[in-house]
Sequence to fold (486 residues):
Amino acid sequence: MPEMKKSKNDAHWSRRELLQNCSTGFGWLAFQYLAATHGWSNPANPPATELPKPHFKPKAKSIIFCYMSGGVSHVDSFDPKPRLARDHGKPMPVRIERTQFNNNGNIMASPFQFRQWGQSGIPISSMFPYVAESADDLAVIRSMTTTVNEHAQGNYAFHTGFPFMGHPSAGAWVNYGLGTSNSQLPGFVVLQSGKASVPHGGVGLYSSGYLPAQFQASIIQADSKPAIPNIVPAQPRPIQKSRLQLVSELDRHFQIQSGLTSQPAIEAAIRNYETAFQMQSAVPELVDLAGESSATRKMYGLDHPNGVTAAYAHQCLMARRLVERGVRFIELSCLPEKLGAGQAPNPWDQHGNLQDGHSNMALQVDQPIGALLKDLKARGLLDSTLVIWAGEFGRTPFSQGSNGRDHNPFGFSIWLAGGGIRGGSIHGATDDLGYHVTENKTTPYDLWATVLHLMGLDHEKLTYRHSGRDLRLTDVHGHVIHPIIA
Fold:
């Protein structure tokens, strides 16, 4: 038997090291064969029997996060306020909080009409006729608040629980807590299409932060070929596989020689190599829509004459396909309000001409999201898929300038559907101006506590040791919103 060389810092042999060094390494060769045969080559994607266990029985298996970057006006979408029409043009009767730009006008009526939808009678504005058809599946939270009033900070607060970069995104936390059930695809995917861009704050919104790197998001261009740069291998698959094996062996050798056999950064790098290798066959199949029926394409709006609607439709259909393949967390990205328009990072941000801007954005997302809800339900997937619709804050009940609205973090609306949610419900309330929360105040911490709960995770127990603290997505805050859970 060859001499077994160990670093002086190593007190114990890992199982892999034992297989590599004993009996001339034949045990390691056998393990490699089993790993390749059974798809266990990625330690981040173990067999289902070895996945992390949820804390309790989950109601949802996957999450689709439709993020409306820029700040949708709640008083023009899901929180009607008749007083705005009655007092249109009058000065605000209460103190105006500090706003982002302070070009404050008078009370401004909504330019959109509301009507009640479904058996539940949830009021939804004329901006969202397709989503409104699924009103009985929605739980509308009218009492969301945040502590920040600027886009980048708001985006980070909503994604990570902290208003600055460096912390893991919610999708990374979900995958850290549950693992991925598909070894060929990442567990956290951000979809883009057309001219969609990352919201203000940058790709750090999708980061794994201090969690191991294999939990960060992979960005897929839903309507592009290739969907991921360099996804098509330049070399034949056997050659590439041998190169990947060589890189992995060199990394393992470095681990052994340096005594860093439990170093998360090295492990994460190896796992990411292997996941990327598997994605080369999985992603082209994922984005190939040839098998989708013409009725499905029409329902989502893939051939819609409005180019940004068609582009967003690709994301929604791709989200359904990712759910079917067991991906845990999928986030969708908004496009500019129309082709050639600016404001790509925060396209719902209408400080002027709100009626046209919000109308264009609703045209982009309403039909595709409405189709996604119906399609998931028809396929029996909505019960196990949690759909979240939210932006970083709402907008003021008074005008900015003559016909826009400024940011309002003091009370705004989001909604959830499927995945254990009590559909046809409304939680919380704002005052008769839609300015401040008056009932059941909620925060992003409460949202993520609820989401983790629906995924079978206790938000207080899902922690990661970093810099001497057991950190979590909800920091030291958060309460599960039980009234919206079925």
